[in-house]
Specification:
The chain is α/β, with parallel strands linked by helices. The protein is built from 14 helices and eleven strands.
Length: 361
């Protein structure tokens, strides 16, 4: 037998041995997930709702250091849940489930993970910030998933975090939500606001109830969200409206933006802002199906807009910025927090924070 044949014989023998080992011991052929994927794999089933499965998630931290250049203004992000029941067709956060080896974009709204021991973790992390003299660093709640989504009524994870914040002083906290359930926690929001800098952002994409139901199928009606803004303002909370995202050909017309600003002024919103649609690859299948079903005439336009990039082109962004600024001037609204904090009743607001604004784009 030549050397070449001998080498082939040995290699084939090793390959067969590996296959037999995997058959006898299947675990040898499996690669165990790590990190948050392992946590998800080991999570316990808690309950199920309408087309949604809820599972526990044993995390080691609840405050996440922000590394995204897009959110460089923000130091820390908190999301009490992974996944979101609201099912917004444009949601850019669907990719976060991929870290748990959940690749189907629809699983983001079908499998919601509830972070365990969140309040205890937050208390430990705030103490660390205090020891470092960094309690002033901006903390954003709800950067990827809604902190007051329906499961919060029962699990109360977000409320437990607010209870922790209410016992601290000198924090800079921003909240973003679509949920009217935030009204339940007005007592804690007032307590936090009395000792810290707090700003609440209510996202309202459109005042059209029928369009909102198609676009954000499980989120509260837009008229109810406008009412929530008014109630927050009546309670003395700094609250404004994010008319985001602006959807090309659907909600981005001068008339649509003007109408949203008019309604924002009517509920005494502290500020009004809007950002163009940001469409990550993970979000495109879901959003493009929405376009195909409800706005088929726009399919080609969207295909061209997002063929090579996730963000809107600069000329479009500048045009939208000008429309929003004009609507703010017309209806006497502040732009996104520019000046609102500087006129707050609490004087100890850092100037660099005012300049940055508490932005949730």
């Amino acid at each position: 037998m030549t050397f070449t044949y001998l080498l082939i014989y040995v290699l084939l023998g090793e390959q067969m041995a590996n296959i037999e080992s995997q058959n006898l011991f299947p675990i040898l052929g499996q690669q165990r997930p790590t990190g948050v994927a392992r946590m998800a794999d080991e999570s316990e089933w808690l309950d199920a709702g309408h087309d949604v499965e809820f599972r526990s998630l044993g995390v080691r931290t609840v405050m996440n250091k922000v590394v995204s250049k897009r959110m460089a203004w923000m130091a820390w992000g908190i999301n009490p849940y992974r996944g979101c029941e609201f099912g917004c067709r444009y949601c850019y956060a669907r990719y976060t489930h991929e870290f748990m080896e959940l690749r189907d974009p629809e699983e983001f709204e079908r499998k919601v993970f509830i972070k365990q021991n969140a309040a205890w973790l937050l208390e430990q992390e705030l103490r660390k910030l205090e020891r470092r003299g960094a309690l002033h660093e901006e903390i954003a709640i709800g950067t990827a998933t809604d902190p007051w989504q329906p499961i919060e009524r029962r699990e109360r994870v977000t409320r437990s975090l607010l209870e922790v914040f209410s016992h601290h002083r000198g924090l800079t906290i921003g909240v973003v939500t679509k949920s009217t359930l935030i009204e339940r926690d007005l007592d804690l929001l007032r307590a936090i606001d009395a000792r810290n800098t707090l700003v609440v952002h209510i996202t309202i994409t459109t005042p059209d109830v029928e369009l909102a139901r198609k676009l954000e199928p499980r989120a509260p009606r837009p008229d109810l969200r406008f009412r929530t803004v008014r109630r927050l303002r009546e309670a003395g909370i700094r609250a404004g409206i994010l008319n985001s995202p602006l959807l090309p050909g659907i909600t981005d017309t001068p008339a649509a933006i003007d109408e949203m600003a008019r309604r924002a002024a009517r509920v005494d919103a502290c500020f009004f802002s809007a950002n163009p649609l940001f469409l990550k690859p993970c979000s495109r299948p879901t959003y493009f199906r929405f376009i195909q079903e409800h706005f088929p005439q726009l399919q080609q336009d969207y295909a061209e807009r997002f063929r090579e990039m996730d963000f809107a082109a600069r000329p479009y962004r500048e045009r939208m910025r000008a429309l929003v600024a004009a609507a703010c001037r017309k209806h006497g609204l502040q732009k996104r927090m520019s000046g609102e904090l500087s006129t707050a009743r609490k004087p100890a607001v850092r100037e660099d924070f005012i300049q940055q604004q508490l932005r949730f784009g």
